[in-house]
Each structure stands twice: as C-alpha cells, then as structure tokens.
Amino acid sequence: MRYKKALITFVSICLIFTFLQICKAENNSDGKTYIYVIPVEGVIDNGVAVFTERAINEAEKTQAKALIFEIDTPGGEVNSAIKISNNILRTSIPTVAFINKEATSAGVIIAISCEKIMAVPAATIGAAETRPNEEKYISYWSSALRAVAEARGRDPQLVAAMADSDIVIEGVKEKGKILSLTTKEALKLGLIDEQVENLDEVIQKILPENKGNAQIIRAKMNLPEQIAHVASNPYIAPILLMIGIVGIVTEILSPGFGIPGVIGLIAFGLFFGGSFMAGAAPAWVLGLFILGMALLLIEIFMPGFGVFGVTGILSIIAAIIMAFPNLEQALISVIFAIAASSIIIYFLMKRITVNPIFNRIILGTKQEKAKGYVATSKDASEFLGAKGKTITPLRPTGAAVINGEKVDVLAEGEFIPKNSEIVVIKVEGSKIIVRNANNKESE
C-alpha cells in the first residue's frame, strides 16, 4: 500500500510538472520579450534558405514578438530567394527588413516580403536584373516581385522596374535601365518605411515599451547549414568540382592511394553533402554518383568493352548536374570544372609518374614508326589467317605483331589482354580484325 501511494504521488508530481512546463511554453511566463535577428548576408543560395527557414521555425516556437532580417546581400539564386520570401510571408510573427548596406538583385524580394522596411542612410535597394537576361526569366522574376509587393501593399510597378528594363516610370526610371534606389530615394517613393542608424534603433522603433526587457536572439548557422552554404554557393561549387576531378584523376594516374585521392573525395563529399543538406539534391543523386564511381573501378580492374567506364562517367555527370538547383547553373559549373581541371591535369601529367593501371582506361602506347609500327593504309589481305601476339591490350583496338610487323588491329567482340596469341579472322581493306587464338571458335 505504501509503494502504491508513493507511485501515485510520483505520477501526480510528474503530471503537475508537465502541466507547468506546457503553461510556461504557451504563456511565456518568464516575462521576456524575444526578438529574433536573422542575418541574410553574402550570396543567397540554398544554404541560406535552409538556415532562414529553421530560424523562423525556432522563433515561432519561442513565440518571438518580432523577426528582424538584417540584409546585406548582392543577390544570388532566384529560387533560393523565393523560398526565403515564402517563409517570411507565411509566418504570423511581425517581420522587419533592416537593410544594413544593400538589398540588391535577389535580395530585393526578401526585403519587400517583410511588413516593414528600414534602412541605414547609405543603403541601396534594387538592380534585380536576371541572369541570363532573357524574356522568360525576366517575366517570371518580375511577376514574382509584383506578387510580393501587392501582398505587402507596396507599389508593384516600382518593384518590377528593378528587374525589367522596359518598364518606364515618369520622373523615376526611363526605358532601357534597371531601377536602383538609395535610402533617401526609396523613402521619398514610399518603398521603405524609415531610415535608421543601427539595429538598436530598429528594435527601439518596433518595440519602444519593451526594449529594456527584450531578449535579442541572433540566429547563427549550424555546421550542416554552413557546409550547405559553402557547397551550394554558385561561385564555390564549380571549384569543389574542379578539385574533385583533379584529385581523383591524379590518384588514378599516380601509383598508390594518397593525398590527391583524399582531397578529391573530400571535395566531392562537400559538394554532394552540401547540396543534400541544402535540399537541392535528394539522397538518390548521391547514390547515382557512388554508382558511377563504382562502375569506373569495375572498368579499371575488370576490363571489358568500355561499357562500365562510359556508363560510370555518364552517371557521375548526371549526378553532378542534378545536384544543382537549375540546369543553367549546372552547365556553367560543369563546363568550368572540366575545362579548368583539364588544364591542371595536363600540366600534372608532365610531372607525375603514370600508374600502369591507367592504361586500362586509356591506351597510352605511342605507335611510332621509328619503333617499328606499320600503319596499315594499304590492303592487308596478306595477313588473313596469320597468327601473331598483342603488344598492347585490345579494347577493342590496339597493336600487335603479325608476320614480324607491328600493326594496328581490332578485336572482334572481346577484350584481349597484352601478350595474347591472336589470329586474323577477317580483313576489310586496311582494317585487320583478330580473335584470341586460344578461343575454340578460332580453331
């Protein structure tokens, strides 16, 4: 009986404690007024979008009285900026955009998504021209700006003029130019609400009666978000790809497994991991990249007809393209990475000792005339039925010695290793087609 009473007492205390915690969470009984400051700095990308979404959700859980977006950005990815805009529009917490230097390009839509806009004296807002500057992109982007401006009761034509050079606003903007405004000009046109000197003044204006009791929480990126921010940055992603390509190719070219391979894998890991954490790429894209690498390894260690190698390369390229938020950025990044890495690899090949295993991917033997090789430009019917030996792997082409001559040959439907006995089964003009002499079909 005593244990039963003790159990009832313990359960009752737990229930009371739980009820008090719920009341505390719902009523914010600590008496504090929470204000969240969310910095939007640097290039806008998927990493920034993920960070702002988390910060807004945390502010909602703590029942913050206001959300201040401290903006200092030259712009970035349009899709990421629209994601941030949508999250600002959906929250029930009062929102303020504090332009602490510039809100240009994609930063415009983030600023106008807030209920109030304040800016320091030397701030700028505008210059939201799309890249590429094509009609379909301009139309989509200016429509998005108009919709947000209308939702917040701002002049949609004024905002759209920041993206569309064809829009004319008498006394403000002429045709052929993109609108960009200073703080003074934006105040005069009613685009921003107030001019302030610093963040403290912003807080004073939005909560004058609670400033002394307000607890300011400045949101910060966690480690996954920082990785996502770096890896999804449109300027850094191509560099990561370039490092990854150079590292892996250098590792294949040079004997052993060492620093180049590790660096290459880390670069690819940051690229795909960052894209995954930023929500730009699903997990299967990373799986497709791993599959591509596995197929390349199969091609190296189990030579065939190049099917595994070609499929592996295509899988890797497809995974890289799908890891980007849009096709345009993907193509630009991939072209840059391939071009830059090709130049670097070219110079590295002159300085490193080539691994023999690389010959399984690329035929590195030079068939020079001075070394006895004979180009079979004439009719090669004299070799029909003759036997010889390969001096390079046939994948399916390569070199062999037949009747004492070094000639170019083509294997029929199989991979033939170096130093294998072969027999000529067909001659088509200057083309010599051979088969492994040890196969029963050749007998």
TrEMBL record:
Keyword terms of this UniProt record: Hydrolase, Membrane, Protease, Signal, Transmembrane, Transmembrane helix
Signal peptide: 1-24
Subcellular location, record wording: Membrane
Keyword ATP-binding: no
GO-annotated cellular components: plasma membrane
Membrane topology per record: Multi-pass membrane protein
Keyword check for Signal: yes
Residues of the NfeD-like C-terminal domain: 381-435
Membrane-spanning residues: 232-250, 257-275, 281-298, 305-324, 330-349
Gene3D superfamilies: 2-enoyl-CoA Hydratase, Chain A, domain 1, Nucleic acid-binding proteins
All residue ranges annotated as the NfeD integral membrane domain in the record: 235-350
Highest taxon of source: Bacteria
GO biological process: proteolysis
GO MF term list: peptidase activity
Domain NfeD1b N-terminal as annotated: residue spans: 35-207
Protein name: Membrane-bound serine protease
The organism of origin for this protein: Tepidanaerobacter syntrophicus
